[in-house]
Amino acid sequence: MNLKELILNPNDFFKYLLNKEVSLKTPFLIVLIFSVLMSAYSYYTTSIMFKIFPSDMQGMMSMMIIITAVSSLVGGFISWLLIAAVMHIISMAFKGVGSFKRTFEFTGYGFIANLIALCITIPIGYYFLSSAHITTLTVAQLQNPAVVKQVMSSILPKTMIYTNLLVGIAVSLWNLSLWTYGIKYARNLELKKAFIVALIPTVLFGAYQLYSVAKFL
């Protein structure tokens, strides 16, 4: 079994892995690559957007950029742990059987959807941001939400935001599919029950990601 099978036939992929020893190596690599790319992208985008701050604030902004990048790096692994924990706990209500380590393993594979999505959104983001005209604001202007929103809109065009929203919705649906089959075999559940278990964390995780994009509209 390879990752192509995970993408094209997740049911058979997880069914096959169920007969193998639990191994976190591949899902760890998936989440690691996703987190590193997300961190680098966050560093790049915040570096561009924070140019609106005056020069005397750039030192503080540089620290914020680093904090944002580190948070994105760590956030991928925290999301993996939380989503696995939530699905494992919810599956108890359906009398799911199976170790948390197996749930953790299968949940990690679901992040392949987010990784592939980044390979789409990063080039799009770079295309728009690399040619963006940045207007440096004064402290007084920064205190005016309307001015800040107007400048941000010029940096992040609606075409880019709507594209990211559509990609985000598609990824959430893909996450739901992968995690449904993953938790089905990790916890020995019927498909309908597995769908319910996977739905809650998928909605929460997807809503957070969509909010992160939609707030710029």
TrEMBL record:
<feature type="transmembrane region" description="Helical">
    <location>
        <begin position="64"/>
        <end position="94"/>
    </location>
</feature>
<protein>
    <recommendedName>
        <fullName>Yip1 domain-containing protein</fullName>
    </recommendedName>
</protein>
<dbReference type="InterPro" id="IPR006977">
    <property type="entry name" value="Yip1_dom"/>
</dbReference>
<feature type="transmembrane region" description="Helical">
    <location>
        <begin position="161"/>
        <end position="182"/>
    </location>
</feature>
<feature type="transmembrane region" description="Helical">
    <location>
        <begin position="194"/>
        <end position="211"/>
    </location>
</feature>
<feature type="transmembrane region" description="Helical">
    <location>
        <begin position="106"/>
        <end position="129"/>
    </location>
</feature>
<dbReference type="GO" id="GO:0016020">
    <property type="term" value="C:membrane"/>
</dbReference>
<feature type="domain" description="Yip1">
    <location>
        <begin position="5"/>
        <end position="208"/>
    </location>
</feature>
<keyword id="KW-1133">Transmembrane helix</keyword>
<keyword id="KW-0472">Membrane</keyword>
<dbReference type="Pfam" id="PF04893">
    <property type="entry name" value="Yip1"/>
</dbReference>
<keyword id="KW-0812">Transmembrane</keyword>
<feature type="transmembrane region" description="Helical">
    <location>
        <begin position="26"/>
        <end position="44"/>
    </location>
</feature>
